[in-house]
Design goal:
Oligomer: single chain
Number of strands: 13
Strand order of the largest sheet: 1-2-11-8-13-6-3
Structural class: alpha+beta
Order of helices and strands: HHEEHEEEHEEEEEEEE
CATH topology: Jelly Rolls
Bound molecules: succinic acid, fe (ii) ion
CATH superfamily: Alpha-ketoglutarate-dependent dioxygenase AlkB-like
CATH architecture: Sandwich
Strand content: 25-35%
Distance between the termini: 66 Å
């Protein structure tokens, strides 16, 4: 076959296995708008993801992951820990930011690899004081909610995805508002700011075991906020 025909045949095969939307969306660096949330696909390359994961393992050694209970008495399916001056926690007495973790020490410092993402993408010149680390194992999800336990909602929320894909749903200021969804892939970074800062959002499900960053599968989400 002539070279041109081979290339053409390859192209047909290629476009049959990926829709044009996929092709466009996976282009590194092109921001995607999802109901006002801005998603930066593939912000972190594989080496940066691996380095951040090692830093997060250190965080989890100092402040182990826990499965919190909501004020309503439901056990969350996501396991959580935190870094920074304060960490988001919940139990029967409510959602709040705490300066100590449940094993009784202050939270570890926010790793430099994580701070670098905030400094590059947040558009503000103040550093976050809180870094929530969520681990989604098989079947874990997070229902629609607003991030509103922070003192001042004008600071953005920056969220980093690592590991298995997670289906991110974003709506409006009211729970019943229409929503749109998109799979967040390992290395993607999402920003909630401006009108979308208080948008309802959640993770419907993950595709457990699809990624290969975490050897035992699962998804990690790192959320940076100015809480105090
Ligand atoms: C969150 O809203 O706290 C988590 C979002 C995510 O896991 O991507
Ligand atoms: Fe959130």
């Amino acid at each position: 076959m002539a070279l041109q025909a081979v290339v053409a045949a390859d192209l047909v095969q290629f476009s049959e296995s990926f829709s044009m939307v996929d092709l466009f969306d996976t282009e590194p660096g092109a921001p995607v708008d999802l109901m006002g949330a801005v998603i930066w696909p593939c912000w972190l390359d594989r080496a940066a993801q691996t380095a951040m994961l090692a830093d997060l393992r250190d965080v989890a050694r100092a402040a182990p992951f826990r499965q919190y209970e909501t004020p309503g008495g439901h056990k969350m399916s996501v396991r959580m820990t935190a870094a920074g001056e304060v960490g988001w926690v919940t139990d029967r007495s409510g959602y709040r930011y705490a300066s100590q973790h449940q094993s009784g020490g202050s939270w570890p410092e926010i790793p430099a690899s994580v701070l670098d993402v905030w400094r590059a993408i947040s558009g503000v010149d103040r550093d976050p004081d809180s870094c929530l680390v969520n681990y989604y194992g098989e079947g874990a999800k997070m229902s629609l909610h607003q991030d509103k336990d922070e003192a001042d909602h004008h600071w953005p929320v920056v969220s980093i995805s690592l590991g298995d894909p997670g289906l991110f749903r974003v709506g409006g200021m009211v729970r019943k508002d229409p929503t749109k969804s998109r799979w967040l892939m390992s290395g993607d970074v999402a920003v909630l700011s401006g009108d979308a800062r208080l948008a309802y959002h959640g993770i419907d499900r993950i595709r457990f075991g699809e990624g290969d960053l975490l050897p035992d599968g699962g998804r990690i989400n790192v959320t940076l906020r100015v809480a105090q």
